[in-house]
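Protocol step 4 of 6: structure prediction from sequence.
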Amino acid sequence: MAKRIAVDLHYFPNLEFFAAIADADELIFFPEDIYQRQSYFNRTEIRLANKVGTLSVPIQGRRPKIALNRIKISNDQNWVNIHLRGIQSAYGKAPFYEYYFPYFETVFEQKLESLWDLNWQMLTICLKLLRMPVKMRVHEQGQEQTWAEDIRGQLMPSVPFSERDYYHPESYFQLFGLDFDPNLSIMDLLFCEGPASKSIILKSIKKH
């Protein structure tokens, strides 16, 4: 029987996300869910030369109880160039940067207005590069519940991953320094480890 997991849509999800969905056949997303502040919907973490840095996508206006698929990106803040420069400075010398970055750059260049659409395209690319054959489906209001597991609202920046049951860090090659930084953006793993990324994710699933 196919395993379906209800999940949130994140901006370049971290490794905990991929560990949590690694055995899923289908991911179900909910565009009508209400936007939550301080979530991963518009932020991700990358490893810079002397720190872990956060990339945040700016959002238009105030957001009182607005559906995720109605969140608009504030494209007048030049955020795309900031993110592109940040990613290049962080990973320009990584072994697989030149192979994988053009996939993401193509999406950035579209200057999308919808954060939902941006995240959807980026996740689609990440799953393809990871060779994870999971399907992505949007849940429409009124449809019956077809998922076995619901992890919406669980992967939040405010709570350490160590307090959840999905991810146990498996170290891998990283640029800059000797200390390993766990649970960064999937970009960190892809750019540094390339085709080995999927096996590292599978090794990082927390054993129960």
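Step 5 (inspection) to follow. The chain has six helices and six strands.
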